[in-house]
Amino acid sequence: MAGVCRCVRRHAACIPPTLTFTLRRMFHTSHACGGLLHGLYKRGLLKESFPEDAAHQRLPGLLQSGAQTVYCGFDPTADSLHVGNLLAVIGLLHFRSAGHHVVAVLGGATAQIGDPSGKSGERQRLSADAVRENTRRIRESIYRLFANHEVHFHGGSKALGTVAVLDNLSWYKDYNVVHFLSEAGRHFRLSTMLSRHSVQARLRSGHGMSLAEFTYQAFQAYDFYHLNQVYGCKIQLGGSDQLGNLMSGHDFIHRMSGEEVYGLTIPLVTSSAGDKLGKTEGNAVWLNRDKTSPFELFQFFLRQPDASVEGYLKLFTFLPLAEVESVMEQQREDPGKRLAHKRLAAEVTKLVHGKEGLESAKRCTNTLYHSSVQDLEEMSDLELQELFREAPFHELLLEPGTTVLDACRRVQAIPEGPKGYRMVSEGAVWLNHKQVDKPEQVLIPKLHILANGLTLLRVGKKNFYIIKWLSL
After folding, report:
1. What is the DSSP string of 133-176?
2. Fewest C-beta atoms under 10 Å: which of 107, 240, 255, 420?
3. How far apart (Å, rounded) are the C-alpha atoms in residues 19 and 25?
4. Is 105 helix (H, G, I), strand (E, B) or coil?
């Protein structure tokens, strides 16, 4: 990685256990802390940091002294990141915007072990092939987020730092268990490992903890050490549930080389009910389009409670804080317009899916909620299928003289016989947001069949059918 220097290993004695502290104390007791860290704290993006004295005295100065390397890890236990992971990526984007080098580490190795943090039971074991495919897809997603940020959000004159997306399998694949335990294992203390909150919580549960999960913190600690040695990385970002793992990395590096490193935690994203937004909680909003469409992502943020929107504008967008306050002031003056919610949804959708994804989300919104025929006509097949995920999609040959009744029956939207005929004549059928009540009406291009060759058929209030007409 350009501009990142290699560290030299050196050994030092063990230091006393580290202590965590609130960032409020750190950033409000030192004038030197103005700048990046202070800005991230004011946005609510930083929650805890360690070790206390060293971070308070030296971390701000280290960041101001020149470009540093910051890393965050993502285990590919699914084929997409979710909104719960997005804050970690946003944290890296803020550091990159300030000119620092950022590294996203994908856990091609550690995903096969399973992180116990915040989990009541052991994760389902993934095959090596599944992890490999998940890693590929998440790598593409992370690069897309960085590209969208650079194109749509980086307007500063300061040069961006470099980006690297690595797979930790690349440095574990040639290790055998004896070598790893001989080199790294002797530097971990069971008493410290057992004291971690994630371990204690599992040991008190009925599920217990496997040896594989117990060693996870050792592997994450070694990741930090490897990046410190090879890329000069001195700062690790992680969710607040990763604090114990971050501390393990700090302690391990001190034992191995005496290098001073730092950990910063970011808050976990929770639902309005206080539940963690993660894939194992069953309520994930994904960052890959094939799992959560731009429209669905847009609607997720548009529907956030009023009490959450200001905090989310600070966390999930790159709007200056003064602009956030201005948006909130407009919201308070006319709450019915939901200007803050719309701005939040637009900013996040553009970051995740780009300008095209945002335009797609707006088209789908206008089609579904505002019965916009123009937007419906501009929609692609993919957008229609995303918008009406449960709706059957049919490709039909458009034969001369095809009637409204023919179309309904060919997609089995109405019963055969008189009952189906009556449903149409009584106004239960809508074509492209327009009610039809003449069963024998021949389909008219540009009215019943849009310029994109599509017809959106609705029977009743919620039964949708998508028809793609094929010409003779």
Report:
1. HHHHHHHHHHHHHHHHHHHHT---SSPPPPEEEEETHHHHTT--
2. 240
3. 14
4. strand
The count of residues in the chain is 472
- Give the integer Cα–Cα distance in Å for 130 and 249: 27
Residue with tokens 């190795």, as numbered in its chain: 109
DSSP state of 5: P
CB-facing half-sphere around the CA of 175: CA atoms within 13 A: 17
CA distance 285 to 147: 21
What is the reported pTM? 0.84
**Which of 300, 260, 200 minimizes the C-alpha distance to 57?**
260
Among 289, 171, 152, residue whose Cα is nearest residue 220 = 171
Q: At what angle do helices 216-231 and 243-256 cross, to 10 degrees?
A: 50
CA angle 442, 447, 448 (to 5 degrees): 55
Query: Omega before 418 cis (within 30°)?
Result: no
To which residue do tokens 């009556």 refer? 422
Distance CA 165, CA 139 (A): 7
pLDDT band (50, 70, 90) for residue 9: very low
- For the stretch 441-450, contacts whose Cβ atoms lie closer than 8 Å and that sit 24 or more positions apart, written own/partner, are 441/403, 441/404, 442/401, 442/402, 442/403, 443/398, 443/402, 443/403, 443/404, 443/407, 448/404, 448/407, 449/398, 450/373, 450/376, 450/377
Closest C-alpha to 238, from 319, 154, 117: 117
**What strand order describes the sheet that includes 235-239?**
21-22, 48-50, 262-266, 235-239, 69-74, 101-106, 163-167
pLDDT, one tens digit per residue, over 251-285 is 999 899 989 999 999 998 876 667 766 555 567 89
Mean pLDDT throughout 408-418?
95
Share of the chain above pLDDT 70, in %: 89
Smallest CA-to-CA distance from 63 within 96, 23, 86 is with 96
